[in-house]
Amino acid sequence: MTGAATIDIDTASFKGSIKLNSGLFIDGKWVDPVEPDSIEQVVTTLSIRVPNAESSPYSCTDVDLAATGQKIAAVSLGSGQDAYKTAWGLKCPGTQRARLMQRLADLMERDKEAITALEVLNTGKPFSVAKASDVGGSIQWIRYFAGWADKVQGKTIESSVTKLAHEPYGVVGQIIPWNYPLLMLAWKVGPALATGNCIVMKPSEITPLTALKFSELVAEAGFPPGVFNLITGYGTTVGHAISHHMNISKVAFTGSTLVGRKVLEASAKTNLKVVTLELGGKSPTVIFDDCNFEQTIKWATQAMYGNMGQSCIAGTRIFIQEGIYDRFMEKFTDMVKGLTAATGDPFAATTRHGPQASQIQFDRIMNYIASGKESGATLHIGGERHGTEGYFIQPTIFTDCTPDMKIVREEIFGPVAAVMKFKTEEEVIEAANATEYGLSACVFSENIGRAIRVAHAFESGSTFVNSAQLTEWSMPFGGYKVSGIGREHGEYALATYTQVKAVHVNIGLTI
Ligand SMILES: NC(=O)C1=CN([C@@H]2O[C@H](COP(=O)(O)OP(=O)(O)OC[C@H]3O[C@@H](n4cnc5c(N)ncnc54)[C@H](O)[C@@H]3O)[C@@H](O)[C@H]2O)C=CC1
Ligand code: BAL
User: Fold this and answer.
1) Considering only CA atoms, which residue is closest to atom 1 of ligand 2?
2) By the number of CB atoms within 10 A of the CB, which of 29, 192, 218, 498 ranks highest?
3) Where in the sequence is the active site (predicted)?
């Protein structure tokens, strides 16, 4: 139900009380979900776990913010449509949209510490990382797209005097996951607002807190009511309603390939809404003998274990050329031991590795570890729960992996590396591409000719030479194969939030 919950946080990184609205943010207002006997009915459960600073930081108190039923269609989507027609998109000049977006970014900057604390509660990621990458990155994304808002322009084709207008879709649905709750929101909101669309946003049911806070800042920034709407709830209800809705013209989804297929299917069965999908990955990290050894160790470790391995571009299949295999494994093992030693309370300044985001995810990863052991891979290090409480898993390495193993084929979304040895460039390209996924791939070699050759040979939407995971607001991001459809970021993202209208102007032709 609507109302505000106060979350008291007393940790090494953040001390304070954060007031958070707990309703749905629709048409610029916090509203109660409507009666549960309606046709489109969902149950919204916002349950957060607040570390109890008095005892172990991992013993948690459940705080219920809301648990209720709702019908979303008439209220949220109807008002979104109305707002689009009267107050946004074609009616609101790009310069004004840019100003509002910059104001929103300023407010996020103002509340950066509190937003970070909420994101840590949401996910368990280390505070310093959440502050710099998740919240800092989100602010950058909003600012970057604010810069585009007054530069979305059409063209004129001179020969036939045809004006091409790039128009917003109207109401777009956005369904996002739990691994980067605020960042994924910013990735999607930025281009949608810049191009003048209205948004119906559904955060993951596991991590709604920063999205609620973001909605408050949207209101404070002065966006017209209905431009940004937040509907919390489950995928099978709210997500299902969004993907099937006849008045939503485009859906942008990030999450599992399984659900991505459902969203696409929903489009086919309803109004053929445009669907962009950013899905899973099983990304290769290819390390040649002639790499810069010290740098490569660091990048490969970060690529694998960053965000506790809960990243769609995690470098989970690590291919090491035979000449440096032993030396690399020795140092890589040391890095993992260091990470294990720095595993713990996400609010502690020394923590570099936190828990997995949920019990479901914890169980899923532990099952993959069991499968790795059963399938004959060698458990090199890790493989157990870390500590006795919470969703902590030791950073893990499996060696002697083969392509048929589940831990090599499937996205684990946890801190579990599958290491393989290779001899030749041709062999490793084939092995790296032997996956249904194609989101990201890294190559490490000081032979720049070879590095570029391999980067081009990867069947992947993003490839990195002597680096990893450097996703940036201006660089297109998306998948080959089952890793997705469409691109986010930069000018390419604008194209996925606009449709082109050809206006043919007769300047003298008579019949
Ligand atoms: N590409 C990425 O960044 C992500 C990939 N994943 C992968 O997916 C696996 C499972 O994680 P989940 O949380 O279960 O992902 P998921 O794909 O079920 O959830 C992502 C979002 O989709 C929504 N959703 C779920 N069912 C839906 C439906 N029928 N219609 C519309 N929306 C729906 C969820 O509520 C959430 O907001 C992970 O282990 C990982 O492999 C998960 C999260 C992010
Ligand atoms: N889903 C995009 C960001 C990531 O998971 O790495």
Assistant:
1) 312
2) 192
3) 278
